[in-house]
Amino acid sequence: MSLLPFCQWLAETRGSVALHESLYMYPLVESAHVLTLCLFLGMAVMFDLRLLGLALRRVPMTEITRRLGPWMAAGFVVMVITGGLLFYAIPIRSYQNIFFRIKVVMLMLAGLNAWVFHATVHRRVAEWDRDRVTPRAARRAGAASLVLWAVIVVAGRMIAYNWFDCDKQPQPNVVNLAAGCVVETR
Amino acid sequence: MDLLAACQWLEASPLGTAIRTSTWAFAVIESVHLLALAVIGGSVLLVDLRMLGFGLREQRVRDVAGEAAPWFVGSLIVMLVTGAGLFISEATKCYYSQPFAVKMICLALSIVFAFTVRRKVTGAEEGRVRPLQYKLVALVSLALWFGVGAGGRWIGFSG
């Protein structure tokens, strides 16, 4: 099933057109999206560095979760809302953008990584709360998180470039397939 | 040589030309700039939030600042190097860009503030700094860095 018809419908809605054509609203939403990176990812990086034993080693893990978690969560909410609005403004091009698709897949993997972390090693956090060297599974989760979020940031930035856009043909078949381009074959 | 001529010379330099004419260079440097933004943002917020009485409240300010310092300095260096790369590829545009001027002024003030007043206050013994002093330093730091970030983002929107 393709989400293209949905994106086409979304692009025709008044709100989408208004946001897309607005002089200040779109740049403001995008700026909020980029600057909130400092809050959300900044805190997430500190969290991951603690898991890896590279920063805040003397601070108990539960204290970091309790004190930094709410800030990270608040940043995440802003990221999702502003990111959703950015997609809402440009649905079709985003949907058919290879970098956007990479970003979405990586976001899912980052979510999966966080879920696995919380469902497994973090359940026993009381046992390693004050350990400077955290369990291997925790270190693995921290490293995976850093890599995934780095790819998400880079992919997100690359959405702005049209190198692989569907209206720029010819493209290699693999690009058209990955981006979901509808290409007329002769 | 005036500033405009210097910008034009930089832009025409081999490195400036290479970054400008390459398909990927600007995007790659920009991406590294963004990744370092997350780290510098985290390391600044960690300390400034603490000074405001949020975040890692059980820890002493000087300990939090000590933990954040290497990440702050490291990411700042990456920001400056990648930022310089982006700048020389379009130095003339930056010369005429108001947001760029705002960013550079805020950046200079941020760095000076970070390594003088903020460093002294965050490094001081807890009892010697009044809560209001901490809060004031944190707010000035946040405001200055916000100016750097917002100005930077706005370079791309104007002209």
Folded structure, characterized:
The complex is a heterodimer of chains A (about 190) and B (about 160). Chain A is mainly α. Chain A is about 70% helix and about 0% strand. Chain A contains 9 helices and no strands. Chain A has helices at about 5-10, 15-20, 25-50, 60-90, 90-95, 100-120, 125-130, 135-160, 175-180. In chain A, helix 3 (about 25-50) packs antiparallel against helix 8. Chain A starts with a helix and ends in a 7-residue tail after the last helix. Chain B has about 160 residues and is mainly alpha-helical. Chain B contains 7 helices and no strands. In chain B, helix 3 runs antiparallel to helix 7 and helix 6 runs antiparallel to helix 7. Chains A and B meet through helix 3, helix 4 and helix 8 of A and helix 3, helix 4 and helix 7 of B.
Secondary structure: elements and pairs:
The complex is a heterodimer of chains A (186) and B (159).
Chain A: H1 4-12, H2 14-21, H3 25-51, H4 61-89, H5 91-95, H6 98-119, H7 125-128, H8 136-158, H9 173-179
Helix pairs in contact in A: 2-4, 3-4, 3-8, 6-8
Chain B: H1 3-12, H2 14-21, H3 25-51, H4 61-89, H5 91-96, H6 98-123, H7 131-155
Helix pairs in contact in B: 2-4, 3-4, 3-7, 6-7
